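Quick one from the shared queue. A colleague (R.T.) flagged IS3 family transposase as missing a structural entry in our internal table.

Convert sequence to structure tokens.
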Amino acid sequence: MLKVSRSGYYKWKSADVSERAKRKEKLTKRIIWHYYDSDETYGSPRIHKELLKEGWTVAERTVGLIMREQGLRSCMARKFRVTTTDSNHDQPIAPNVLEQDFKATKPNEKWVADITYIPCCQGKLYLASILDLYTKEIVGWKLSGRMTTDLVMEALDQAYDSKKPGKGLIHHSDRGSQYASKEYREQLESYQMKPSMSRKGNCYDNACIEAFHSILKRECIYSKPKFKTKQEAQEKLFQYIEFFYNRKRSNSTIGYMSPVRFEKLYYQSVA
């Protein structure tokens, strides 16, 4: 009926199977590359987005199936929490100016800050981080063995020196004694920043920076061997935050771009 010989049909069919097999082989290699290039942190949604950027036409489900075939699995969250907020103090509390409005219209409009615990064989460590709500970039951070005012002050100074924000930036944090201290409040005033603090016991008021710390622990800490020394922790966190998270890791809330790339595009658009 099709005027094709039996041998010709089977030759076409085998060639079609061969082409599909070759395509899957190439696709599998790219999936494996993206998986290990992300230090085994990317799951099928992010790898799918990276493949689309490269020009592949493929479904996210197909990526997930191939990852399962190859035994590739993104790191999973682990339930573990150390309390780092000491709100039992008599320092002044700033009003909740942010009010869970996590949307920003430009870089250096709203920053959120928090402290989290970092496990280490050599002793306790605490990480103070500041995140820009527009770009999702970690604009300042500091690691220390003590949860003091100096810890958060150094993270703030680093962020200010790096970005030089204009007057009126909203700086939001929890009610911790470090952020409520006289020294920190005076530094915010000198930088012409508007302080904002979460309501007591409400973690949702600072959800964005809490989410970053959760991602950091899932991808950089709990999925890896425990840091043996404080120096190793400093080096690994520097590499993760500065080179991977800020400059390379795709973020779903900003179109699967890295924070640095997203900020660059903003300034190009307003130039």
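The first helix runs from residue 6 to 37.
The first strand starts at residue 110 and ends at 118.
Added to the table.
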